[in-house]
Amino acid sequence: MIARLIEGVPRRALVMLGVLLLALIVAPLIASDYLLTVLILILYFAYIGQAWNIMMGFAGQLSLGHALYVGLGAYAAAAFYVHFGVGPWLGLMVAVPVAALAGAFIGFLAFRFRVAGVYFAILTIAVAEFARVGFDHWSWTSGSSGLFLPVAQYSHNDLWLLRGQPVMFYYVILVATVLAFIFCRALLQSRVGYFWLAIREDEEAARSSGIDTFHYKMVAVVISAAMTSFAGVFYAFFYNNLFPEQVFHISRSIEIILGPIVGGIGTLFGPVLGAFVLTGLGETITAVLAAAGIDLPGAKQVFYGICLLLVIMTLPDGIWPWLCKRIGLAERDK
């Protein structure tokens, strides 16, 4: 299994990945609390960017409402924890099917009735907005007042209940990001991955060659939605509060897709690199402005917009494909 995953990958790429992973493993030993929080955010967006990349980068289906699956996962696990004392890992068994069913519902409506392109993107936004309004008025999840998870001072880290210090959350999201990367690599090497690429490049040609495009697009949507729901569970237990306007808002969906776009849609490492570039530099700008006593609302969003504009104008395929050529990595190993 491992041999197949690394088959065709240059030794240089494996060494670089190993060094990066080692650096991330030891980072909490030298990082301050603030830097550790920034690294958690980076890994969070790296993970969720990989989940979105399966849908858009691999299968070519543009989702602009991916915050829907984050919100469903977050509220499912948080509500069961608040009302029934069910831990997040058991809550994940509820969150994943709920998000997957939502993805299957959207996919069935769109693909059965040939809703594609920008109209599919609009459909994803519409369903996310419908969920936002619905949760805003659902008393069981406290509606617009917000759902708050009980927080206690823990002298130790409780991994089962995800209660503890930031370093515990860091390693949880690090493991999730690494597993997502390996999973995406396996998907790309599988028969399903090749079918997705065929659909992404030319759906009509793929259909003509005998590929069941409806089935494989549904698989992409369901897998992406299910993976994203874990990010929602992590979000809920890390921040300990949920507001529909905050979780389901379209701005959250835009934040999800920026990393893969900047890093390189359809590549394995692009979403990870994009998360490091955008989140890392964005938080740096925020910290510098705060240290200088400058109150500039929306500075981070302006920075994101400038980065996106520069990448689209100069590197339309993203930073990672361009970087691959500079460091001598083969195109197939992106």
User: Mean pLDDT score, rounded?
Assistant: 92
Order of helices and strands: HHHHHHEHHHHEHHHHH
> Low-confidence stretches at least 5 residues in length (pLDDT < 50)?
none
Question: How many strands appear in the DSSP assignment?
Answer: 2
Shape: globular
Distance between the termini: 20 Å
Assign the structural class, choosing from mainly alpha, mainly beta, alpha/beta, alpha+beta, or little secondary structure: mainly alpha
The number of helical runs is 15
Largest sheet: 2 strands, antiparallel
Adjacency order of strands in the biggest sheet: 1-2
Percentage of residues assigned to helices = over 70%
Plain-language structure description:
It contains 15 helices and two strands. Helices cover 73% and strands 1% of the residues. Helix 3 packs parallel to helix 7, helix 3 (33-58) packs antiparallel against helix 13 and helix 13 runs antiparallel to helix 14 (299-314). It has 334 residues and is mainly alpha-helical. It has a two-stranded antiparallel sheet. It has a domain at 33-147 and 156-251.
What's the gist of this structure?
The protein is mainly alpha-helical and 334 residues long. It has helices at residues 2-5, 11-30, 33-58, 67-84, 88-112, 118-136, 166-189, 191-201, 203-208, 213-239, 244-247, 250-263, 270-291, 299-314, 319-327, and strands spanning 147-148, 241-242. The longest helix is centred in the last third of the chain and has 27 residues, at 213-239.
